[in-house]
Design goal:
heterodimer; A: mainly beta; seven-stranded mixed beta sheet; four-stranded antiparallel beta sheet; 0% helix; B: 111 residues; mainly beta
């Protein structure tokens, strides 16, 4: 199994530009999570999906952030317009059915907004 | 409160020593407590986990101690090795699927 795949691994953009992060979860996993990691705020859950349906988006910082999961094998996190304070590492994770199943994290996308 | 507190923020231990990381929570609805390990440039990965009806769980050199009445739990790494140098996150599972992570502890094991 290839694990959770994220692209791009690094993204540098200018303030005001649209940024799209992509994630392919592990095949067969029903849950997909998007996290943001910064030195100041640690690891924050932004949103998670169950069977492609958003369940909890209370961690999405503001309307500039949006996430979609059009099918079981693909999800996107979009920031429009991007701001310097959005600079962080964004992780996607997936897990199978069951409350205590392990979450498997992808390698992350390091986003820098200039 | 959904917050999970974690200390210390950073820790330096000599090779062969014991590393201890402490965590505390408020919400008694939490019913599962995993620890994740993160190496630089990688995503976190599950290390070990415990349920609140168990006071201790050991896997190799890693042990979780759980004190339900105090709402505290800790990770002990015995015979710490340089390869254990990483960031460690305690966490609590809330409301079935939502995981609340602590702020993390950066562990450095020096030769």
């Amino acid at each position: 199994d290839a694990g959770v795949i994220q692209s791009p691994r690094h993204e540098v953009t200018e303030m005001g530009q649209e940024v799209t992060l992509r994630c392919k979860p592990i095949s067969g996993h029903d849950y997909l999570f998007w996290y943001r990691q910064t030195m100041m705020r640690g690891l924050e859950l932004l949103i998670y999906f169950n069977n492609n349906v958003p369940i909890d988006d209370s961690g999405m910082p503001e309307d500039r952030f949006s996430a979609k999961m059009p099918n079981a094998s693909f999800s996107t996190l979009k920031i429009q317009p991007s701001e310097p304070r959005d600079s962080a590492v964004y992780f996607c994770a997936s897990k199978g059915q069951g409350s205590y199943n392990e979450q498997f994290f992808g390698p992350g996308t390091r986003l820098t907004v200039l | 409160q959904q917050q999970v507190k974690q200390s210390p923020q950073s820790l330096i231990v000599q090779k062969g020593g014991i590393s201890i990381i402490n965590c505390a929570y408020e919400n008694t609805a939490f019913d599962y407590f995993p620890w994740y390990q993160q190496f630089p440039g990688k995503g976190p990965a599950l290390l070990i986990a415990i349920r609140p009806d168990v006071s201790e769980k050991k896997e190799g050199r890693f042990t979780i101690s759980f004190n339900k009445s105090a709402k505290q739990f800790s990770l002990h790494i015995m015979d710490s090795q340089p390869g254990d140098s990483a960031t460690y996150f305690c966490a609590a599972l809330f409301f079935y699927d939502k995981v609340i992570f602590g702020p993390g502890t950066s562990l450095s094991v020096i030769p």
